[in-house]
Every structure is written in structure tokens, then in C-alpha cells.
Specification:
- This protein is α+β, with helices and mostly antiparallel strands.
- The protein contains 15 helices and 20 strands.
Length: 555
Amino acid sequence: MNISIIALTVLLLGSACAPGSAPATASQPDAQAGAPKVLTLAIARELDVWNLDLSRGTRGGGIDLLSTIAHNYLVAEDGFSWVPELAVEQLSVEKGTWQLNPDNSMVTTWRIHQNGRWHDGAPFTSDDLMFTFDVMKDPEIPNSSATAVRIMESASAPDPYTFVINWRAPYVDADQAPWLTPMPRHLLEAAYRSDKAGFPAHRWMSSEFIGLGPYRLSNWEKGSHLELTRFDQYFRGRPPLDTVVVRFIPDENARLAGMLAGSLDLIPSLGSGIDAALEVRRRWEGTGNRVGGSLSGRFFTVETQHRTEIARPDHGLADVRVRRAFYQAIDRQEITDAINQGLAPPADSWFFPGHELRPQLEASIPRFPYDPAAALQQLGQVGWARGSDGIMVHQQTGESFNVQIKADRATQKVASIVADQWRAVGAHVEEFGAAAPGDLEELSTSPGAWMGSQGFSNMYTDRFHSGYIAGPDNRWTGRNRSGYNSPRLDQILEQLVRTIEPSKRLPLHRELLQEQMGNLVVMPLFWEYQPFFVAKGVKGVGHVSERRIFDWDKE
């Protein structure tokens, strides 16, 4: 991104950054002592529904952060760990709240705070969690749930502040309270019982949301912004801010322009360009404004179509030998240098630098170093050779190696570099825009490759399990969008999610690396470095603490 574009956008936007009659931001001088504290931030996307477990759309673009401002969960992600939020404490084998039984079943017991309140003042109790469990287990309610819900056998609420789940098998991420985003029984049960087909579109999911977070929804101007005001009955105490204004600004230039113009107090980690972040940091030196950032724990990938009936060309990327060749044709160091300016390393697997298990697994990571000559040799062994125009042609079918790469605006630069490197070994690459957000069918039926990003836990749970292949039967909500199908991989993944003891998980991680990385189910490229932008006077905001919304404050 060219910073001159940002400067020009500042001039064009000026006071127009403020949507309609939205409250003034606290980055502007207060006219009088004791003026309301208003924090204004920008995210890239407008959410469809507040309960992301019932959404077919994305959690990216700041939507996941927005959901935590107005709502709370049993536990919340804090860096690379999960800490209690509505729960009094984390699950513990030692304390008996995480119980593994001799018959391979499991019991988890959550104890919740006794002073939790919904935004309408109703108490939050285990009965709400019981209702949530029933909804998520209901096959008539479309949702994005996966492995965890399937092996939750039953649940009970023995008292208002205790919620017990009986599992038919162990599940290693049970301490993340998967797929248990609390829903209010008193507001939703009647609608759930009377109209299950329309339940996911109930007005509570959008304009009339009532949550459990420190700030409650007070106004939503579709396509522009929403406002959240302090919830004085919040169980942790009185939140510091009077109002949080969230603007929906898809364009990165416009977001940064708002930050430079002083109409925004915060841009969270949305994957902003490194070049722009470094330039803004330089311009802000000595002002008290700051640009921070760190590795997010996610890595960028090339994902390919594995269904042979959809994948094109024939004998192309659906063949593991071809995938290996094209992975060796990618210079990952060049890509991360171009994108991250040396702030993030290339990725060779889903075990990020500094992960506690990486030293023990290093030797088990299959290696595919950048080697175009080896790539060409491998392609020749499976029938591909360059024609007179330099484009590879299959020697048996005569088909040219024509392949598509799809990318959204955030990954377009990465896709273009990959496309050029693939062209260098003889592929004819067409670059396309990504599927529209929420159009999971288009994404799942892409015939070539697409850019994406993965989280660490995706790779050892259900992301590429054959039981979750996206298709018409599950309304294309299956997480395995590329259609990878391997009984051996399924077996390893199932063992991993049901093995709690760390020493027994280690050999399974080694097997998973050999199976999933060895066959290049996805092609890791580089680790994500996420800058964030914070105005002077904003407190309690940082990469790890971005989701500690209750700690946000302003001078």
C-alpha cells in the first residue's frame, strides 16, 4: 500500500468519516470535563448474525472481535490459551471438573458466575446453557458445529450455576467450551419451538440482540456502523467506557485514513498491510499514537480442490505428486519478505515458531524446499511436459495445465506471487477474485486453488476430516471445503481429539504431520503478522489483550 493513497484518502474523507449522527470520538478534545468516554473503532466486515455458531459466514474481518464486545462466553481466547469468562474457573482433571471414565467416556462440569445478567436484566443461568445445548444438537437447526457437538451425548443443569456435559468419547478441546455460545432461553425458546426453519434468522440474532457482554447494542445503522453502550449490570463490574462505536469500513486505505485523521481510536488486528503499518509507525513517532503487532498464530495457505470430479486440469493438483511439485515451485521466503518485510517467517507446517511442542516434532515435519528444477522433474514423471509455448501439456491427454487461483483483496498480492512462480514452471494460471463472503458453495466447488489462512487447532481437529466435507447435504457448511478424503487421516484426527494425556498425543502429532503435511492437504506459506493501530490515550488494548474488552479505557 502506498502511504500517499492514505494521505489522499484523509483529505477526501475529512469529517465525512463520521457516519450520520454517530457520537463524536474520544480522540477529539473534550469540550468539558466529565464528557462521555466514547471509543470508536473500525472493522472490515459487517456481521450477519451475533451467534457465529449459527452463521454460514466468516468470523474474520473483525467480526469475531465485535461479537465479544456485546457477548461473553464460558471461556475466552487470550493469546494462545483459553481463560475463564462466564465460567468461574477452567476445567481441571485435578479438581474433578474434567473427568475421564474407564469406558472411554468423559464428563465436563462448568460452574458459572452467579451474578451474570442478560442485557434485559434477566439472570444468566445453566438453564440457558441447557437450551443452547439442545439447539446446537438439533439436526433441524443448521449450524457450523462439528466434531465436538457430535460426541456430546447429553447434558444437565443440576443447579442454576452448574452445567454438566456427558461425552461419549474424550475431546481434547473441551476446555474451550466449543459450540456453546450462550443463548437466552427466556427470549428464544418460543421461537425455537414454533419455527425451527426460521430460528437462525430470528431478530435476536441481529437487530434485537441481547447478550452478556460489557456493552449492549443500542443502535445499528446497516452498512455504516453500530453503537454499543455501557451495561451497568455486567457481572465483572461497571465497564470503563460509556459508548463503543464500531464502523464497518471494508477498505484498508479508508480505515487507515480515519486513524490518521483522528476519527478512529482503534483498528484491531485485521491483517493490515505491513508496508502501511511501518509507514504509519514512522509518521507517528513521538505522538503517543502507536502501531503494534505480532504473530497471530495463523498461517497463510494455498488450498487446492481434492475432488477429482471437480478439480481441473485432470491429472493436476488433485494428484499428490503434482501438489508436491507445485509446492516446491513456491519460494515461501520470497513471499513472506514481500508481504511481511521480514517480520514473519515462512511456514513449513502448523507448528508455529516458539510452540512448546515444535522441538520434539521438528524432525517429523516433511520438507519441501524451494526447488523449481526438482518440481519440473517431478511433473515430468507424472506425464507433464512443456510445449512449444512453454505451457505444460499432459503427454497422454494433450490437455494444457490451466489452473485457477482465487483470492480476496487481502490475499491478492500473495496469490499473484504464487501465480508467477507457478507460471515459471509452465502452468497457465488464471487469477480470480474469491467467492463472496458466505458463498460457501462457490468456494467449495472451485476447480483449482484458493488462498486462505488456517489456525493451529484447525489442523488437528476436523478441518480436513472426510465426515465434514462441504456439500448439498449439509448446505455447504462442512469445514472440509476442499473435499479431502483419507480414512487414515480421519483415524488420526479422531484419535487426537480423544486423547487428553500430552505424552500420548505426541506420537499422534508426528503421524498427523506425515499424513497431512506429507500429502499437502494444504500448502503452508507464511505466518501471519498482524499490525494494530491505537490512538493516544486508549488504554488496555494490545495484540494479546484486544479481546479483553472490559479492560479498554480512555484518558
